[in-house]
Every structure is written in structure tokens, then in C-alpha cells.
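Thread title: Can someone regenerate the structure for this chain?

I was given the following input by a collaborator and told the matching C-alpha cells would be attached. They weren't. Posting the sequence so someone can regenerate them.
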Amino acid sequence: MEYRKNEAKEWAKEKIRGVWIATYTPFAPDFQVDWEGCRHNIRYVRDHLQIKGNFHAGMVGETFHQTIAERKRHLQIAVEESKGKMMTLSAPHCETPLVTLELVKYAEELGAELSGPMNPRFYQNTMTEEGVFQYYKWIADQVNIAIFPLNQLEHGYLMSPQLICRLANEIPNFVGVKNIAPPEHTRLVRSLCGDKIIVSDAEEEHWLSNLTLHGQEAYISSAAPFLFQSKKSKLINEYTDLAEKGEFAKALEACKRVEPMRRAFIKVVPPGKRYATHKYWAQLLGMAGGDGRVRPPYQQLTEAEKEAIKAAVQSTGLI
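Best answer:
Regenerated them for you:
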């Protein structure tokens, strides 16, 4: 890694910038991972979309529907293809804490820049903030890699702003948080933590205002950068670059041009098939999508749904 453990916060504030992506996992017809497709997709977002970093194989990547061996191999491919050109933030979360730690250590061994566990689940018990704090401290104490958690409601609660502030103050390699939370929650996290860590609102729709008004250094991350960008059109990158140059009126105009793409996507997502839609939409733009294939219990797209997605993509001007 480029930093020592006690330098992780300073390194992160200096290096983590711009538009990041949340990558998915393509599957073959027999539901095995399409490894060449994985490699192709990392190269695609690296070379054609010029993405700054990859939140690798988290919830968008259907991480909970994969074996540990599959997750390790996929991460290895991501690091190999990204090294020196795009940062990698591994998504190591597992219901078993020892497996989470194993995956964090594996990311460190491979040379990934960061690792992002999710907040832990409390089975048949009430979540306690002390328990969450000790969980992250237990992981961070055993590794040197920068820790950048995903704070979300998947496990029934959000870490409070006060807890995130404590983690930022007491854990030297706790460098940021991807916060899938109401705007007021994110604002309070920023207020309490100051410049100690990077606080990333995970919604692309909020990125321009977060960048220009709230000092958010990086957009980490979602499927939006590969859904609403292509070899032909990279409006998210464009409005980000314009805003960073201080050309705010032009940035706002470019951002407004993304809105029809957002609406077109939302309109064709069948209930319960968001990840399948991600993959098929991206396949139409040049990525490996396995025809939108997802592992059970997720449902496959029908032919009619694929036709609707194809028409929506064609309406966006991305191809």
C-alpha cells in the first residue's frame, strides 16, 4: 500500500477523488461466474469510462449469492486490471465476522487500496452502538488497509452520526463511509466528523450539489456511472470535471442532461429485478451482462422486459 496505517486518513483525503463505480458480477447460462466477462467489465470502466475507483462486488455485485472462493477470484481480477489506473475498494462483508476479517486481509494481501465492510447484523437482538464500534475496531486492529464501510439499512439499522464520529476519532485507518441514508443524517455526519474522514452520499442525483456545496471529495458509488455513461457519452464525468474547474453553470447543464436517462431507467425496472436490469442495460452499452442473468432467488428478465430495456437505452443517446 502507498501509506502506513497511521497515515491512512491523510492519504485518503489526498487521493480519493472523483467518480467511483459499483461493479456487478456477470453470470453464464449455468449460473457460474463469467470470469472473462468480469475482466472485460473492469477494463471497460477503466478505459472507456475513465472511472477513478471501483467499489468492488458489493450489493450491486450480488456478493451474498457467491462463494468465498468466487469473491476472492473476482477481487483478484479487479485488482490486477485496476492497479495503477483505478483504485479498488473491496466489499468483504459476510455474516460470519471471521470470514469478513479473512476477506479484508485478502484485499490487503492483493494490494487493494481500501476495504469496505458493511455494518454487522444483530440476530434476534437489539443493535448496540458499542457492539458495532468493537466490531470495526476488532477488524481495523488486525490490518493496515484503510477501512471505508458501507452504512446502510440492509441489516436493519443505520450507524448513527455520533457512532461514525467515534469511529473516525478512535480508529486510525477508518478513513471514510459510504452513507446510504437520508440527507439530514449525512449532513450531521459531516458536521460531527469535520475533515477527519470522507463522507460519501451514495446517490448520483446528489453528487453535483455534494461536490460543489458540501465539499464531498468523491462519489462512492453506485451503478449510475455505467448505466448513464458509455463510450459515446460520459455526462457524469463531464459535469464532475466542469464543477472541479469552477464552471458551475456548465456543470449544472450537463447534469440536467442526465435526468432523461435516469427517468428512462427507472421506467423499465420491473419490480424485484433491479440488478438484472443493471446487467442487461449495461450489456447493451458494451459490458458483459450475461443477458441480465442473476442467481436465485432473484428473478430473470422476460423477453418483453428485455425489449423494453432495449428501447429505453436506445432513447437515451448512449449508443
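The chain has 14 helices and nine strands.
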